[in-house]
Amino acid sequence: MVKFVTLATGLATISMLATAHAGLSGCPKNLAFQLTNVFQIGQIHFEYGNCAKDNTGNGYAAGIANFCTRTGDAWQVIQAYHNLTGGNDEFTQFDSILKQYAETNSGSTSGLDGYCNAWQKASASQKFWSAQGAIFDKLYFTPSQGFADSLGLQLSVSQGQMYDAAISHGTSNNSRSLGGMIQTTNSKFANDTLGGSNSTLSIGGYQVDEIEWLKEFINVRKAIGSKNNLASINSYNYIINQTEYVWVHDIKVLNGQGEVGDVTCDHTYLPGEEPLLNTPPVSGGSSTRTNIDGEGTDGEDNTGDEDNTDGHSSDDDDDGSSSESWALLDVSRVLLTIAVAFISAVLIVF
Known about the structure:
The protein has one domain (2-339): Chitosanase, subunit A, domain 1 (Up-down Bundle). Helix content is 43%, strand content 11%. It contains 10 helices and 9 strands. The strands form 4 sheets. It has a 3-stranded antiparallel sheet with strand order 3-4-5, with helices on one face. Strands 1-2 form a two-stranded antiparallel sheet. Strand 1 (2-8) and strand 2 form a beta hairpin. The radius of gyration is 21 Å and the shape is globular. The chain starts with a strand and ends with a helix. Residues 1-22 form the signal peptide. Residues 271-323 are annotated as: Disordered.
């Protein structure tokens, strides 16, 4: 099935045929999530129970995308959770104040004493994981793949980069968010641009190789200047240089220290699904990422301090360099190997 898509670029209007729902799914989607998590939170799985007062005025930030009480995405998660629990759960006592803060865009935390305790308690529930996963997809993953579909992106590495940028910069059309960066990238092409990816985009009437377009997009993203995105950008450039354009089962990537590791679909860390390694971590510490104005799809311009302009960049200089991410994969493989050997031995005995 194909559809006719028109995308405004700011300088021109692009018309193209794009395959419907051609974005990431299955294993490649899993790999993209793990890769982005390495640079956002220093580990491959999501933090469902993380909750802390946000230091940029967004109230409380919690969960797998630092859902905030001011921006309203936290209220969306809790409403989704209410739908699964019947409405009588850990957050019922906060409903009226959370709704008020979401509707008035208030960063106040007055009346929310015990909110993080409630969030952490709920994070032990599969229903709460599912609620977070649903809103995560709605605000970040689905819009990012909508952009990918509109552009006609066919390669996993390009689709994954759209998701990674959405998480870091938001999905609005201002110049520092995903939509705006796509517009800026498209404006760079004034003639046909050949390449070796075997996938060609139609950009402003010109034929542009998909990988050549992706390289330019990454350059535009890098020019925004947020140091917290450099590790992710370097890893995607490494993937491109290794010509790992289509993701099947695992990919070689760089961590924040430039060390080569891999992410694999032997493990699943999709939002709303139970991670293989026990339950999601629960943290009562400070927020590891910072939500800002324009986070999600609200379309506000993300201005202010350069290092805090992206939707979920770390507030400190943590570049996702934790070697624990790769160690976690290695330990998992060892445990899996031991389990297989044990089962084989039992079968031989009987």
